[in-house]
Please model this.
Amino acid sequence: MKQIPNAFTLLNLFFGCIAIVFVLQTDESLIMQDGGSWVAQFPEKIWWGSVFIGIAAIIDFLDGLVARLFNATSAMGKQLDSLADVVSFGVAPAMILYQLLRISYIREDTGLETSIIALLPAFIFPCAGAYRLARFNLDNTQQYGFKGVPIPAAGLVVASFPLILFGSESFELNILFTNRWFLYAIIVVLSLLMVSKLPLIALKFNDLSLRNNIPTIILLALSLISVLFLQWLAVPVIFILYIIVSLAFREKRY
Model:
C-alpha cells in the first residue's frame, strides 16, 4: 500500500515525458495574413503536449490525496514528487516556451539565421522551478500555504498557451503568444514568482467551516466564471486571480 502513492507520482513523470515528445514534434506552419504579417498555425501535436501536462497535474493532485488516504506519506515520496514535478511542470513547459520563441523568430525574414542563444532563456523557467522545489522540501512551514508560486501552477499557465492558440481564431492572441518580448516577460515573471517568498494560499479546504475557507471558495467561484466566459484563456486569468486572492487574505497564510 505504501508504494501506491509513489506509483501515482511516477505516472505523473511518465505523462510529463510524453508531453515533451509531443511538444518537440510540432510541424507548425506559417501563413501570410492580408496585412503581410506571418501567423503560426499549430498542429494537433503541441496541443496534445499541453493536454498531457494537464493530465500530469491531475495525477500530481491525486498522489497526495492517495498518500493521505492510505496514510503512506514518506520522505522518499516527497523527494520523488519534486523530481517528477521538475519534468512535468518545469522541463515540459520550457519546451513549449522554446518552441514559441523559435516560432516568434522564424516569422521574420532572417529568422532562420537566429542563434540558439536567443532561445535559451526558455530554460530559466525549469531552473527556477527546481530551486523552488528544493527550497520547499527543506521548509516545514508550508503545510497550510506556500512561499512562492508552486511549479505546477506556473507550468499550467505555460501549458495553456498552445490550447489558447489552438482553440482561438483571434489574430491578436496569435500575435501576442508568439511575440518574443511577451514570452521573455512571461519567463522572467513566472520564474521570479516561483523563487519569491510571496505568501500564497493552498488550494484545499482546512475544515468544514465557511469562515476558514473563504479565500478558496472565492477563488473557485471566480475560476468557474472565468472558465464559462474565457475558455482556455481562463487559465492565466485564474492564475492572476489566485495571486490577488492570496494577497488579499495573506493574514490567513498559516
In short: The chain has nine helices and four strands. The chain has two domains: 4-197, 202-254.
